């Protein structure tokens, strides 16, 4: 990816504090961040234009994470997906990966954990 190219990420979580935290970390690392409070809202944002990465919580009302992952995979298999959760533990995160997430990250996580996961999914991302 050429230097200076902006990557777009949709962050979906029903906890506004988590959305703000992730958005701040990604914005500081050169990403354009679109915020969603549900899986349904995330799907609308993904349909509105190109997106490189979806970060989705697994436990949300009105379109929970596993269903969101499944639908995104059917619509656009090129979008990278990072599943996050603090509610279900490692078993649900592994299930999310089996059902289409490219990677998973347990809450709570540090900014360094988040950026390392993003770099693994988007190696050419300008995230440092």
Can you give a write-up of this model?
With 128 residues, the chain is an alpha/beta fold. The chain has a single domain (7-118), classed as Rossmann fold (3-Layer(aba) Sandwich), CATH 3.40.50. Strand 1 (7-12), helix 1 and strand 2 (31-36) form a beta-alpha-beta unit. The longest helix is centred in the first third of the chain and has 13 residues, at 16-28. The protein is 41% helix and 21% strand. The chain has helices spanning 16-28, 39-47, 65-75, 90-98, 111-121; strands spanning 7-12, 31-36, 53-57, 80-85, 103-106. The mean pLDDT is 89.
Protein traits:
single chain; 128 residues; alpha/beta; Rossmann fold; 5 helices; 5 strands; 41% helix; globular
Biggest sheet statistics? 5 strands, parallel
User: Which class of secondary structure composition applies to the elements?
Assistant: alpha/beta
- The total domain count is 1
The CATH homologous superfamily is named: Response regulator
SSE diagram, text form:
Blueprint: E1 7-12, H1 16-28, E2 31-36, H2 39-47, E3 53-57, H3 65-75, E4 80-85, H4 90-98, E5 103-106, H5 111-121
Parallel strand pairs: 1-2, 1-3, 3-4, 4-5
């Amino acid at each position: 990816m050429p230097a200076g190219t902006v990557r777009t990420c949709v962050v979906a979580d029903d906890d506004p504090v988590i959305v703000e935290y992730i958005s701040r970390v990604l914005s500081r690392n050169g990403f354009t961040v679109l915020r969603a409070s549900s899986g349904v809202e995330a799907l609308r944002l993904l349909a509105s234009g190109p997106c490189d990465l979806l970060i989705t919580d697994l436990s949300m009302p009105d379109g929970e994470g596993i269903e969101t992952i499944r639908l995104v995979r059917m619509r656009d298999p090129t979008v990278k997906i990072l599943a996050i959760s603090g509610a279900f533990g490692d078993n649900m995160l592994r299930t999310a990966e089996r059902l289409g997430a490219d990677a998973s990250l347990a809450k709570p996580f540090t900014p360094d954990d988040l950026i390392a996961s993003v770099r693994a999914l988007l190696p050419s991302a300008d995230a440092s």
